[in-house]
Write a structure and sequence with these properties.
single chain, 5-stranded antiparallel beta sheet, 5 helices, elongated
Length: 199
């Protein structure tokens, strides 16, 4: 009860009290080992969950946020506790068309996987960014649907690169069209000069 799982009674009697003491010490040792294993498991979990680049979220089948890793602050500017207390989560994190985005994310709550749903996110400071979300169902060992693990990341750099590349492609297509026109005009001029010379 005090959290001291390694209690030794040191009772060496051979009667029922001695047996009870040995059973208690065995139980104490087992609990101590299980607590140690649990702490190690929790430590590994936090090492993975808290040091991922994107925000990792656990959402219940009803759509309530159950857990968020610390990276949610880097992505959205809100702490994990602020997200857990947030009224209407995730609407405050969506800058444009929140209902449309939520409709796109709704299949997740039915246990479906989804990938790369992109939307304009809004940080705590009001700044906007391109956010992309992927998700997968979380199920218990017996197959019971426990909710959704969602991963959200800032996709602004990729989006900007994509925009720059799209502009470059448009400029190249325009340049190629001009080049084709100049080539066509040059061939027409060459044909005209050839006809003039032969005349």
């Amino acid at each position: 009860a005090n959290g001291e799982a390694s209690v030794k009674l040191n009772i060496r009697r051979q009667d029922e009290i001695g047996k009870l003491a040995r059973d208690f010490e065995s139980l104490s040792s087992t609990i101590h080992q299980q607590l140690q294993d649990l702490r190690e498991s929790e430590s590994k979990f936090h090492a993975i969950a808290d040091y991922t680049h994107g925000a990792e979220l656990w959402i219940s089948p009803e759509g309530k946020l159950l857990w968020a890793n610390s990276s949610v602050e880097r992505v959205f500017g809100y702490s994990a506790d602020e997200c857990l207390c947030m009224e209407g989560f995730p609407r405050p994190l969506i800058a444009e068309d929140p209902e449309g985005v939520i409709d796109a994310l709704r299949p997740a709550l039915k246990g479906n996987s989804g990938q790369d749903v992109e939307f304009r996110g809004q940080r705590k400071d009001g700044s906007e960014f391109w956010c992309v979300v992927s998700w997968a169902p979380i199920c218990a060992a017996d197959g019971t649907f426990l909710g959704v693990r969602a991963s959200a990341r800032d996709n602004s750099d990729y989006k900007e690169t994509q925009t720059v590349l799209s502009q470059a492609v448009v400029e190249l297509q325009h340049s190629q069209a001009l080049q084709q026109r100049y080539l066509s005009e040059a061939e027409q001029e060459k044909a005209r000069l050839a006809a003039l010379l032969s005349a």
